[in-house]
Structure formats: structure tokens, C-alpha cells
Design goal:
The protein is of the alpha+beta class and 162 residues long. The protein is built from six helices and six strands.
């Protein structure tokens, strides 16, 4: 049996949100996509404290904090730039600021300014490397972690007919 691809969910924001919520790496870690806007410009993700994502000292496992932020910048940019662009994760950094002991949240927002900047920089076919930053916050607003993702963006090359 062949499973559907993520792209087959991608046209419908609700279907993609539900698909991500039952995706085993997210579901097992307690990661929940709470909101995904219809225009794919905004996402809000939560990570609840559970025994399976608690580390040795009783705080959120760092891998779960990173996993909750992993795919969002790439697919929000990709969905908004469209099929004429290649978008990949290039690099990532996470800084653990304070222990996470409660539910934590992260938000991702792509603006028209971000998209215009990427389109302009990639117009001549050059690769563009752009950093995006996300704060992971506890319910009381305490900064738990800061995650940075570097995206690689390039216009797709035209195929030459033989």
C-alpha cells in the first residue's frame, strides 16, 4: 500500500494540519499544529509535556523542541513562492534558554516582505540563503528556546527540450 505524499495534502490547509497532527513523529512527541492559515502564511504549534518527551531532569526533551519547529519555515515559504522555486532546509541552530516544564508554543509568520525579498534575490537564478528565527515560549511567555532555520531558495531551472 502506498501512502499519500505530503504534497497531496498541501492544497488544503485543514487537511495538512490534520495530517501533521497524526504524523507519528509529531503525534508521539505530543506536538500539535494548532493553527495553519488558509493562505499558508501563519502556523502555530504546541508541544505538551508528556512522559515520552520529558528528559532525565524532567523538562522538555531538546529533540522534541526542535522537531516542533522543523518543517514549518520550509513549507510556508515553498507554498507561497510556488512551483517555480526550489526550497530546502540548509542549516539549523537551537539555543536552549530556560527549562520548559509546561506546554510550549511556537509561531511562524511569512510576510509579503519576506517573499518579495526572496523573489528579488533569486530572480537571476542565484541561490539565496536566508535565516528565519522562531521563539519557543512557555504558556507564561517565558522564552524556552530560540530556533534558527536557514533556507536555500532558488528559481527552478528551465528544462531544455532535446
Amino acid at each position: 500500500m502506498r501512502l499519500p505524499s505530503w504534497q497531496s495534502f498541501g492544497a488544503n490547509h485543514r487537511l495538512l494540519r490534520h495530517g501533521l497532527n497524526i504524523w507519528p513523529p509529531f503525534a508521539a512527541a505530543g506536538i500539535r499544529v494548532e493553527e495553519l492559515s488558509e493562505d499558508f502564511r501563519y502556523a502555530r504549534v504546541a508541544l505538551r509535556m508528556r512522559p515520552l518527551n520529558r528528559n532525565y531532569v524532567g523538562t522538555h526533551f531538546g529533540g522534541s523542541l526542535f522537531a516542533m519547529t522543523d518543517p514549518f519555515w520550509m513549507f510556508l515559504v515553498l507554498r507561497n513562492l510556488g512551483p517555480g522555486y526550489v526550497v530546502w532546509d540548509k542549516a539549523a541552530e537551537i539555543e536552549f534558554v530556560s527549562p520548559g516544564r509546561t506546554t510550549v508554543h511556537a509561531e511562524f509568520r511569512i510576510t509579503e516582505e519576506h517573499l518579495a525579498e526572496l523573489r528579488e534575490a533569486a530572480e537571476d537564478g542565484s541561490k539565496v540563503l536566508r535565516w528565519f528565527e522562531t521563539d519557543v515560549l512557555a504558556v507564561d511567555g517565558t522564552l524556552v528556546a530560540r530556533v534558527r532555520k536557514q533556507l536555500y531558495v532558488r528559481r527552478k531551472r528551465e528544462k531544455i527540450a532535446a
